[in-house]
Hints:
There is one protein chain. The protein has 414 residues and is mostly beta strands. It is 10% helix and 41% strand. The protein contains 5 helices and 31 strands. The chain has an 8-stranded mixed β-sheet with strand order 1-31-30-29-28-27-26-25. A 6-stranded antiparallel β-sheet has the order 19-20-21-22-23-24, with no helix packed on it. It starts with a helix and ends with a strand. 33% of the residues are buried. The N terminus is likely disordered.
Amino acid sequence: xxxxxxxxxxxxxxxxxxxxxxxxxxxxxxxxxxxxxxxxxxxxxxxxxxxxxxxxxxxxxxxxxxxxxxxxxxxxxxxxxxxxxxxxxxxxxxxxxxxxxxxxxxxxxxxxxxxxxxxxxxxxxxxxxxxxxxxxxxxxxxxxxxxxxxxxxxxxxxxxxxxxxxxxxxxxxxxxxxxxxxxxxxxxxxxxxxxxxxxxxxxxxxxxxxxxxxxxxxxxxxxxxxxxxxxxxxxxxxxxxxxxxxxxxxxxxxxxxxxxxxxxxxxxxxxxxxxxxxxxxxxxxxxxxxxxxxxxxxxxxxxxxxxxxxxxxxxxxxxxxxxxxxxxxxxxxxxxxxxxxxxxxxxxxxxxxxxxxxxxxxxxxxxxxxxxxxxxxxxxxxxxxxxxxxxxxxxxxxxxxxxxxxxxxxxxxx
Length: 414
């Protein structure tokens, strides 16, 4: 009987430690941006190629000689670079989803993207094309039209731009949000807002301007102070902030005082959560993460009434593996988003990562070098082979509910 129990126990341990699928490859601990998991596709860089594993079809796709940071992968869409040009593809499809060949590709701004197509070797032949994740083209304007819209008359040749070490697209900030495009005049350095026909949405130029979000935009006046305007250009929150406020999430925007402490205002501009925190994320669905002053600093959860919630351990949120997110204030902090949407919180302590659930129970120990992209109950995980050493690391797609890997990457050096 004892022997049977031992056999069953060993079988249980083997089941927990072995993955259902094993494929060749490894994750990059030095550059966490070289891999991602979006709930269906596991994407990683291995030996200068990008591999895309489709967990639904169980097919592994190889993109030879590509770089993940250039591919702007999203929902199965990605840019393949060939002969210096980028085309938008979808995993598993041989033909590009858009016929355009782009010279320059930005990163996704939410569900919208701006890419540049050059049809002639001069500024008149350069177009900025906005499209969304459903592959619908939102707007398309030549660089000349954009220059004209902002009142910039100093068009030159591409040779002149290259001598100056810049290209025309570097002269502007182009963001599309809430039906408006934010443009900056390269000469005056002032920002204005335009509709999709490139007509000014309302009078007004600003030293700095963020895209609209939820009907409000943070802008900076000529005195260097920040406030908020609505979509008619009307000032709705006065220009009193020396530091840029965040956009509004869950009805609150983060502001900072002269000591660098963070608090939150409501859409009337009233300070409803005092500026007492050394660190504060934006809210996501009514939940925030804040750091309290002290040594060592402590973290707590926060609701929109300013009520603090206990943190599951004497540790900090794991934010070091999500670098590189553009305009982070416009989107939830990745760690917070993962927690709210999946119910799992990744934390760090003494250089190691662990996972807790919403009830504050630790489900995976401090034995991991990295967790990231907690989606569909799974996450990328790198486990230490020897604590504090990068030798014998193990690379998983981890099922957090089952507390076991469903996929393991293994590689041979030669």
